[in-house]
Design brief:
Blueprint lengths: L1 H23 L5 E5 L7 E3 L2 H7 L24 E7 L7 E9 L8 E4 L7 H5 L10 E4 L2 H12 L1
Antiparallel strand pairs: 1-2, 1-3, 3-4, 4-5, 5-6
């Protein structure tokens, strides 16, 4: 009897380990960008940008470049919201951060909320970025190019 329960427990545990990552890592279906300089939110739905925005891969930031507590440039800051269908059939916000385009030819920056800030708890339910949360991170070159193009439309 004991071996049957152990076998059942291993089966259920295996199913949960397989099912959770598949459900939790659904693709981003929409990006919404808002900010004071925009008359209405910018919606981004092109596949390459959505793939790049996937929070589990983090290719919207340059993970090899050092992050900073403060940003040197004082340009516009936009709020970026990633939307997916995670635990429901409805499309909803799953991850949020700030994007600041670089000024005078500099690369843009991405601010991932830190402890105690708005969205930090929600973002932690998706992924933890120990050396990036609460800091301004250089945007990847491709993300910066795509964001600038989307905001220029």
């Amino acid at each position: 009897m004991r071996s049957q329960w152990c076998g059942f427990g291993l089966f259920v545990g295996g199913v949960l380990l397989v099912a959770v990552p598949v459900d939790a890592k659904r693709p981003v279906e929409k990006i919404t960008v808002t900010g004071d300089t925009l008359s209405s939110p910018v919606e981004i739905t092109d596949e390459p940008t959505l793939r790049m925005a996937n929070p589990w891969f983090g290719t919207f930031i340059d993970g090899n470049a050092p992050a900073a507590k403060q940003r040197d440039n004082h340009g516009v800051i936009y709020e970026v919201t990633l939307h997916a269908r995670l635990r429901s059939p409805n499309l909803g916000p799953i991850y949020r951060f700030h994007y600041a385009p670089g000024v005078e030819g500099e690369r843009g920056l991405v601010y991932l909320p830190g402890s105690g800030e708005a969205w930090h708890r929600e973002n932690l339910s998706i992924i933890i970025r120990d050396n990036h949360d609460g800091k301004w991170n250089p945007a990847s070159s491709e993300w910066d190019t795509r964001m600038r193009a989307a905001l220029a439309r």
